[in-house]
Structures are given as C-alpha cells and as structure tokens.
C-alpha cells in the first residue's frame, strides 16, 4: 500500500478546539483538519463478572465467558481468534403492539485479552436477523485476518429482529427503524460501556465497517453517529437500498420478457432468459473493447468510465438469427432487456427510479447471475413488499408473482410514503441523511473509506460514484481530505468475479485516522496467500500472486511498465 502524509503542523499549532470553532457556521473546513491521536494498547482486566460491572438499564447479558485462543466457526469455515472474552446479550426488549411479536436487539461482543485500544462495530449484511460471530471484517473477498485478530474489541448484532421472521419483522414499525439505523445508535454506547468495564477505560478510537447492507450501515453511521466513530469503512454499500431493491423487481420484469422456459407454477423461468454462455459472450466483448484502455491487456477493465463510452451492446455483440441460441449471439429482445437493466430502473414516463450500472467483465460470474435471476424473485420481493413500502403490501402473493405484478408507476412511490403507523418512509430510515456533506465527521478529524465492485449486480457502483461526486461538490472539491472511494474493477457483490478482490482496508483506515497517512492506493491480490481456491472464477492464466493497486476515484490503475503481475508496475492517475 502506497501512502502519503498530509501537512498537519498547522492543525497541531492551532489545536483541534480552535480549528473546530473556525468551522462552525460554514459547514466546511478550508484549513487542515484535526489529527486524531493513536490508540493505546491495553489488557483485559475483567471478563466473567462483566454482567455485574457493565449493568445498564434495558440490557440483559445472557452469557459471559473466557475463550482460549483457537478457531471460531464462521459460516462454513473457521477463522483463528486470540484469547478473548465472549459477551452475549440483548437490549431494548419489547412486545410489539402491531404484530404481537417480542423484539430485542441481540448482540455479541468479543474482547481480546491483548487489546489494541480500539472498538470495531461489525455491521452485518442482508436483512440482518442473526448475531454472527463478532470477528470484524477488514474488507476484501477472502481476508487472512480480522479486526479481532488485530486486537480490536468487536461487536456484532441482529439489528433488532429474529431471522426466523424473514421480512415480516417490518410489520412492526419500530423494528423497521432498528434495522435502518436505531440498532447501531443503541448498541454503540452500550458496547463502549462494556469495553470501559473490561479494560478499565473506554476505546481510544472507534471504527465501523461492513459490506452490502453492512456498507449502508457504515454510511448511515457516518451521518447519524459521526460523533461516535473515528473511522468508517463501507463496502459495496446499498446507499439507496430501497431503490436498488425495486430495481431488482424491474430487472425480473425485463428478464421475464425473454425467458424461454416456464417454472412448474407456469411463471417465466428467469434463469432461461440468458444462458451462462451468453453472458460470457457479453463479458468477452467488454474485455475485448475495454481491457487495454488502462495500458495493458490483462483481463481487468480498470478504466470503467472510458469503457462505458466505448462499449455499446448492440454493436459489440452479434444479433442472432431467428431460432439461433448457441452462445455466439443475443437476440434483439435480449439486447433490449439487458440495455434496460443497465440503464437503470424507470417508470412508464421514463423517470429514473435507480441508478444505471456499468457494463463490466463480471457479468459472467455466478454471483451476478444469482442476484439478477434468483434474488430478484426471492429476497427482493419480500424486502420491498414488507420492509420498504408503507403500508406493507402483505396481501399480495409473494415471490416472482409479486415481482412481475409490481407497478413502477403505482407501487414504486410507496418507498417514499408514510402513514399513521409507519411514520418514517423507507427512504428516510434506510438512506444516510446528509451523506453528501458529512461536515461533523470531517470537522472532528474522522475519516471514511468506501470500496465498491464495479461488477456488483445489485448495488450499482455508478450510484456510489454519484454519491462521491456530490460529496466532492459539497466540500469544494476537497472531500479527499477525509473520504475516499476505491472502485474494485471486475468485482461482484463484495467479492468474486475476475478481480483482485482481496485486500485490507481496515489497516489503511487506521493509518489514515491515527497517523495522517492518507491512502494513495490500496494493494489488492487475486487469490490471497497464493491460494488458488479463494476465487474459483478467476481466469486460468492469472498468476496466483497477481496484485493490483486499488485507486481512489476518479483515478485509474494504469500500467507504467515492468512485471504485469505486480501492483508496483501500475500507477494511479486520471
């Protein structure tokens, strides 16, 4: 990772208090930003008696145990963990007056014996609903370490509802708010209290990070909890998540028009809309036209913006003759469907509902296919029908029937609607407020790093780029002083695709927050630790040790000469 150190002497001379005072009223800082001090290490002083030490109204600790160093099961794998204290509990338990269910914000904390003085909020993804092991993701598809291993005290939560409810939790209006933003707001001071009792002092520095909906959680915290967090790490964020979910339904409607088979229920089989060979054809044509735009034909389309100007689906991909479907061409209706999806969901008047997507090489990946053809008829109808519309569209049939019957004119506006029971719209409780300014975060010296795979099939990197451009404009073109966005060429949703999808963003963020080392790039690898199994979809010709620099937007990794498999052979430039 290449780093640069900004000038901070003036800030030290003025003092952070005076500097903050100078910023009040303008919303912008034209001088150096405050430099936050580095965290100090500590040692665990208490564990099994934490339930009594950290007693707090509304908080129930269900288990507090000492855990020896060893592997922790995470999903279908395991990760190494140092000796730590494991705290399980719940808070804000209540019975809903709307659906009669009992709700609480469940959590897990892991407090390492050897502590680095830092707190990490692990923002989980999807619909939440499960307290997964609090290990702390550092960014990247297959990290070899975790925040817990690095010495952070880590918390994970279910965001206030049980996964067994599925999207039905959102019938309760408070559960909606907990999922959107309130669980983080409630858990943060509670967690800091536990840490203070465990180590004899609170955390010196606090960080929050996650990918997908977890990336959205992090972006929300940058706006709503700017005084609580010093570092924000947001991966593939669902910045406008309700709009993205509606766009998934729009996509299902487009694919249904070109589906060549039906399900047993007599509905269009979305999987038959495009075969894997047909999407590989599109990917190959994108690579053929755009790969060398960064100076090297290496299977990575780094200059995504230039590629959008060059690649045109209709001209680049042959049009099939009637009845031909052998993977060498697309039919005219198939091209129309793909063009509609990539242009962004819109209503009958042509008004945009969600962002465009960039044509990129990862369109051929299994991750892309699963989100477009599977989730659009399973996860997204439930999320839109129950969580993101007011009132919930509970009376309608679910699944693909819901997706195909969803009206972009009549139903899409319901994500902005409220009523007497649901007093905050989905676009209010899910979207980060004031995310295109972030003056509080900036003026106190906190930092933000965002990354996004350019082949993400569900949350568009175009949407994230547009957010960053608004942030730049609101900060006089100097948002890079506290926030940087790193596109990951070819990466699908949080990982996978023909990409160098493995990297450590958390260490870079700590260096920026605590030492003023602004990340000029972040080095990413294709497989991680030389393992050929980490990303099975990589082209066979790629080196097991391939690395690339991830560049801050709008810079691009351009080949400057030397070993084409090494990040040092590339430079970040416009």
Largest sheet: 9 strands, mixed
Strand content: 15-25%
The spatial strand order of the largest sheet comes to: 3-6-7-10-9-11-12-13-14
Uncertain segments are: 1-27
Give the total of beta strands.
Answer: 19
What is the approximate shape?
globular
Compute the average pLDDT.
Answer: 93
Keywords, separated by commas or semicolons:
3 domains, nine-stranded mixed β-sheet, 19 strands
What's the arrangement of secondary structure elements?
Blueprint: E1 3-4, H1 9-14, H2 16-23, E2 42-43, H3 50-53, E3 59-67, E4 70-74, E5 77-81, E6 84-95, E7 102-112, E8 114-115, E9 118-122, E10 153-157, H4 173-199, E11 205-211, H5 213-224, E12 231-235, H6 241-258, H7 276-290, H8 304-310, H9 313-316, H10 332-343, H11 366-373, H12 379-387, H13 399-405, H14 426-429, H15 439-443, E13 447-453, H16 461-474, E14 483-488, H17 505-515, E15 518-519, E16 522-525, E17 547-550, E18 556-559, E19 570-573
Parallel strand pairs: 9-10, 9-11, 11-12, 12-13, 13-14
Antiparallel strand pairs: 1-15, 2-8, 3-6, 4-5, 6-7, 7-10, 16-17, 18-19
Helix pairs in contact: 4-5, 6-10, 6-12, 6-13, 12-13
């Amino acid at each position: 990772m290449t780093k640069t150190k900004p000038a901070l002497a003036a800030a030290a001379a003025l003092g952070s208090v005076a500097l903050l005072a100078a910023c009040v009223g303008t919303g912008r800082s034209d001088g150096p930003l405050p430099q936050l001090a580095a965290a100090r290490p500590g040692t665990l002083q208490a564990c099994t008696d934490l339930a009594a030490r950290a007693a707090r109204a509304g908080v129930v600790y269900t288990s507090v145990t000492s855990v020896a160093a060893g592997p922790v099961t995470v999903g279908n794998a395991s990760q190494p963990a140092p000796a730590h204290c494991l705290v399980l509990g719940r808070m804000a338990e209540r019975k809903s007056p709307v659906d009669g269910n009992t709700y609480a914000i469940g959590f897990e904390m892991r407090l390492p014996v050897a502590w680095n003085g830092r707190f990490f909020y692990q923002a989980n993804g999807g619909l939440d609903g499960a307290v997964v092991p609090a290990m702390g993701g550092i960014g990247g598809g297959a990290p070899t370490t975790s925040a817990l291993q690095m010495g952070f005290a880590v918390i994970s939560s279910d965001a206030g509802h049980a996964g067994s409810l599925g999207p039905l939790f959102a019938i309760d209006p408070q559960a909606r708010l907990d999922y959107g933003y309130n669980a983080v707001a409630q858990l943060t001071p509670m967690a800091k209290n536990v840490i203070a009792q465990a180590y004899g002092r609170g955390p010196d520095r606090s960080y929050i990070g996650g990918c997908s909906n977890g990336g959205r959680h992090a972006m929300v915290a940058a706006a709503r909890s700017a005084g609580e967090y010093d570092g924000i790490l947001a991966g593939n964020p669902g910045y406008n998540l309700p709009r993205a979910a509606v766009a998934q339904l729009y996509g299902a409607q487009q694919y249904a028009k070109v589906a060549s088979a039906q399900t047993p229920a007599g509905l269009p089989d979305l999987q038959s809309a495009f075969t894997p060979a047909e999407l590989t054809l599109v990917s190959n044509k994108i690579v053929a036209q755009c790969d060398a735009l960064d100076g090297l034909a290496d299977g990575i389309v780094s200059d995504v913006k230039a590629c959008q100007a060059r690649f045109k689906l209709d001209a680049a991909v042959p049009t099939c003759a009637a009845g031909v479907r052998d993977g060498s061409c697309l039919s005219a209706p198939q091209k129309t469907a793909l063009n509609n999806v990539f242009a962004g969901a819109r209503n009958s008047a042509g008004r945009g509902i969600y962002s465009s997507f960039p044509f990129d090489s990862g369109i051929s990946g299994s991750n892309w296919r699963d989100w477009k053809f599977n989730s659009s008829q399973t996860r997204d109808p439930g999320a839109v029908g129950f969580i993101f519309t007011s009132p919930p569209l509970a009376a309608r049939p679910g699944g693909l029937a819901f997706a195909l019957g969803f009206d972009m004119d009549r139903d899409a506006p319901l994500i902005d609607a409220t009523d007497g029971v649901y007093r905050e719209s989905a676009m209010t409780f899910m979207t980060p407020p004031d995310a295109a300014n972030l003056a509080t975060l900036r003026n106190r010296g906190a930092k933000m790093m965002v990354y996004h795979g350019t082949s993400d099939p569900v949350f568009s990197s175009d949407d994230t780029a547009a957010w960053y451009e608004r942030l730049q404009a609101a900060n006089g073109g100097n948002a890079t002083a506290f926030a940087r966005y790193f596109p990951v060429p070819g990466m699908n949703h949080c990982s996978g695709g023909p990409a160098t999808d493995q990297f450590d963003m958390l260490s870079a963020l700590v260096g920026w927050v605590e030492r003023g080392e602004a990340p000029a790039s972040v080095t990413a690898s294709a497989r991680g630790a030389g393992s050929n199994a980490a990303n099975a979809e990589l082209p066979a010709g790629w080196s097991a040790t391939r690395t690339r620099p991830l560049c801050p937007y709008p810079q691009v990794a351009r080949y400057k000469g030397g070993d084409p498999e090494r990040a040092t052979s590339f430079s970040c430039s416009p």
